[in-house]
Design a protein that fits this description.
CATH class: Alpha Beta
Order of helices and strands: HEEEEEEEH
Shape: globular
Distance between the termini: 28 Å
Strand content: 25-35%
Number of domains: 1
Strand order of the largest sheet: 4-5-6-7
Radius of gyration: 17 Å
Number of strands: 7
Number of helices: 2
Largest sheet: 4 strands, antiparallel
CATH superfamily: Dihydrodipicolinate Reductase, domain 2
Oligomer: single chain
């Protein structure tokens, strides 16, 4: 399955707190993918907020629904959507744009792994 849903889980935890329970349904549909092609998660946060995350990677990119590579968070006061480009939308208004022009995708992963390795070698906290 596409790795995007793990970021949606992290964002939900950041916004709503730790997850106290999770229910998942998965299935394999794409013989090219060595893992699940779809996962639908229902998560309950410690504050009793309930959410769902739907991730799939078996459709053509043109056929992807609104939840693939996007995250939607709904609450009593409204909803926000985080696009695959990192934009944050409230209703039909873009309220934040990821306009960083330096670096490349994956730079943060390389930096985090270098930090992790350095801390392991020096016995320092991460």
């Amino acid at each position: 399955m596409d790795e995007t849903p793990v970021h949606h889980i992290d964002t939900a935890r950041f916004l709503f707190g730790d997850i106290s329970s999770i229910y998942a349904e998965t299935r394999r549909l794409n013989p090219i993918i060595h893992g699940e092609a779809q996962a639908i998660l229902t998560v309950r946060h410690a504050n009793n907020m309930l959410g769902t995350i739907d991730g799939r990677s078996f459709l053509d990119k043109e056929d992807l629904g609104p939840t693939m590579d996007d995250a939607v968070f709904e609450g009593e006061s409204g909803a926000i959507r985080i696009s695959a480009l990192g934009e944050i939308w409230s209703k039909h208004e873009k309220i934040w744009t990821d306009d960083f022009s330096t670096g490349s995708p994956g730079d943060s992963i390389c930096a985090a792994l270098a930090h992790f390795t350095s801390c392991l070698e020096s016995c320092q906290p991460f």
